[in-house]
């Protein structure tokens, strides 16, 4: 059976020894099965399910950029941009406010938290994370940086504004929010370390993550991606601390995106491992 | 299991998924304005080039209830926009002016244009094969024009530009919904298909012009009254300036309109000229 591309008339593949009783559905299956399975760099030719000749399909992924580069760029931006607003660099607010400092303590605290968050991310990118894929499409760096840098500028503008209004419930609210933020940052870091320890250096194996002695990792009992859970928690904490609507919106958008990722990850865990713990939800315990 | 022999390798560019703009869409409808342009197959269960064939194919997969509902929906919308068209013509014949025209038809317009929100639901539940995002953007821009501009900014209601986009929308929608209706009923007259893929050439730029001119006319009033805007300081530390929002909206037409327009031109070539070739072979 010879299969040609309908548009270009190119010979796509040649199926040998097809049963006369085979249905079109089965032929389609044979064709798409080899088309669809993308091979890993580590695969050995001999071990692949081919006969004495093998047909490899080449797909051009377009311009690529390394994950590390993207992460470093997209995280360095917010760190730097927020500080521009914090120090009230000229041309952002009125000239009489240039290089002045806010009289609200929460504004200083917020700067510390925001900066800490992104410094942590940068350090994790350099020293903690182990990436499955080396690269991603080049277009992503523009998309991602617009998102991170844009939102950072938007929230920094209001938090550091001369007309900023501190939280309604004052110091109590800020303390509670700070506690949530710190706990979630510690949690997020613990999960990153736990995931790193799952995978030896240079390897790309995948294993089911389990709780360790660190209490922050016990969230693995209930959730597949507790790193995302803690990340959303941190931003909720930051939103309560600053009582700033753009921060809340940023948290919401981030939560939506992380839920999509968590569901995908959860699904691939379920597909890959028969004995995956049934109690776990993707991102929110018991709910989502 | 068959043995595989060497074949031509297909080197395709597989970058990130397509952007949400209707570039990845199949043929767009006779969208006269940016607001009204949409993908083929929207809300009528009809799809692209081999429309009649695929329409039947699609309907076989659509349940009876879905087909019945979509048929009713498209008939109702065709009727609604026809009523609007007739009301507009009658008003102009009686009064001889466009002043007061918007006011006389506004209830009907708001009803039927808002009802079109259902088209997003149709995509969500899958009875129409279009992307939710594309339909959402298109319906939202219509809702924006009707509710956030002409309804809320009363001084612009008597502008000529309002008539411009109203006429363009009306003709577009009547063509579009009747196209879907006939497709669903499996009896699509060629002239409807012709209308759908040709009217937009004029109506689309005309409609866009009408919309832009209307927004432009609204700007002074918005700036003066500060409507829909939040200023600092406030409890939630946020601000919004409707005036700048409108400016940004107007600017967004610049990248979006050409893309949609040229996409529809391409679809037109594919659908109408593709058909001609088939007839030749016969």
From TrEMBL, chain A:
Keyword Transcription: no
Domain spans labelled 3-oxo-5-alpha-steroid 4-dehydrogenase C-terminal: 135-288
Main location, first listed in the record: endoplasmic reticulum
Keyword terms of this UniProt record: Endoplasmic reticulum, Membrane, Oxidoreductase, Transmembrane, Transmembrane helix
GO CC aspect terms: endoplasmic reticulum; membrane
Domain TECR-like N-terminal: 1-34
MF GO annotations: oxidoreductase activity, acting on the CH-CH group of donors
One of the Pfam families matching this protein, by short name: Steroid_dh
Chain ranges passing through the membrane: 65-87, 146-164, 176-195, 236-261
BP-aspect Gene Ontology terms: very long-chain fatty acid biosynthetic process
Compartments where located: Endoplasmic reticulum; Membrane
Membrane-topology annotation of the record: Multi-pass membrane protein
UniProt KW Membrane keyword: yes
Similarity comment: Belongs to the steroid 5-alpha reductase family.
PANTHER family the UniProt entry points to: 3-OXO-5-ALPHA-STEROID 4-DEHYDROGENASE, VERY-LONG-CHAIN ENOYL-COA REDUCTASE
Protein name, UniProt field: Trans-2,3-enoyl-CoA reductase
């Amino acid at each position: 059976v010879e299969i040609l591309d309908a548009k270009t008339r190119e010979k796509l593949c040649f199926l040998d020894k097809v049963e006369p009783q085979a249905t079109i559905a089965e032929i389609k299956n044979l064709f798409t099965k080899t088309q669809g399975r993308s091979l890993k760099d580590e695969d050995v030719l001999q071990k692949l399910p081919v006969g004495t000749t093998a047909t490899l399909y080449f797909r051009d992924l377009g311009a690529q950029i390394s994950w590390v580069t993207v992460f470093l760029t997209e995280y360095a931006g917010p760190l730097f941009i927020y500080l521009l607003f914090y120090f009230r660099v000229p041309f952002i607010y009125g000239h009489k406010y240039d290089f002045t400092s806010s009289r609200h303590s929460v504004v200083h605290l917020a700067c510390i938290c925001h900066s800490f968050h992104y410094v942590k991310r940068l350090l994790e990118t350099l020293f903690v994370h182990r990436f499955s894929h080396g690269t991603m499409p080049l277009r992503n760096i523009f998309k991602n940086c617009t998102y991170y840098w844009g939102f950072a500028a938007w929230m920094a503008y209001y938090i550091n504004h001369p007309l900023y209004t501190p939280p309604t419930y004052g110091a109590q609210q800020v303390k509670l929010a700070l506690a949530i933020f710190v706990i979630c940052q510690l949690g997020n870091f613990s999960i990153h370390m736990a995931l790193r320890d799952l995978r030896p250096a240079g390897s790309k194996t995948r294993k089911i993550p389990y709780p360790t002695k660190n209490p922050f990792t016990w969230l693995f009992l209930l959730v597949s991606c507790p790193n995302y859970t803690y990340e959303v928690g941190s931003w909720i904490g930051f939103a309560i601390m600053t009582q700033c609507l753009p921060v809340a919106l940023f948290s919401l958008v981030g939560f939506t995106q992380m839920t999509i990722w968590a569901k995908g990850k959860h699904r691939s865990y379920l597909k890959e491992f028969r004995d995956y713990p049934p109690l776990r939800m993707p991102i929110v315990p018991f709910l989502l | 299991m068959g043995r595989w022999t060497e074949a031509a390798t297909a080197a395709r560019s597989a970058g990130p998924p397509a952007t949400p703009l209707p570039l990845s869409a199949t043929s767009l409808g006779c969208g006269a304005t940016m607001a009204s342009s949409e993908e083929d197959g929207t809300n009528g269960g009809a799809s692209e080039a081999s429309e009649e064939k695929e329409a039947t194919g699609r309907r076989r997969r659509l349940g009876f209830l879905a087909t019945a509902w979509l048929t009713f929906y498209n008939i109702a919308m065709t009727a609604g926009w026809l009523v609007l068209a007739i009301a507009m013509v009658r008003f102009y014949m009686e009064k001889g002016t466009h002043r007061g025209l918007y006011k006389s038809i506004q209830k009907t317009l708001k009803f039927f244009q808002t009802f079109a929100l259902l088209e997003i639901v149709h995509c969500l539940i899958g009875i129409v094969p279009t992307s939710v995002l594309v339909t959402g953007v298109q319906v939202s821009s219509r809702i924006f024009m009707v509710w956030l501009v002409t309804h809320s900014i009363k001084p612009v209601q008597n502008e000529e530009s309002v008539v411009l986009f109203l006429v363009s929308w009306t003709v577009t929608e009547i063509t579009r919904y009747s196209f879907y209706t006939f497709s669903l009923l499996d009896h699509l007259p060629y002239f409807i298909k012709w209308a759908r893929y040709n009217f937009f050439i004029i109506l689309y730029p005309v409609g866009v012009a009408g919309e832009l001119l209307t927004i432009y006319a609204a700007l002074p009033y918005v700036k003066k009254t500060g409507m829909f805007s939040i200023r600092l300081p406030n409890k939630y530390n946020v601000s919004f300036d409707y005036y700048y929002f409108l400016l940004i909206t107007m600017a967004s037409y610049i990248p979006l309109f050409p893309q949609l327009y040229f996409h529809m031109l391409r679809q037109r070539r594919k659908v109408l000229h593709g058909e001609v070739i088939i007839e030749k072979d016969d």
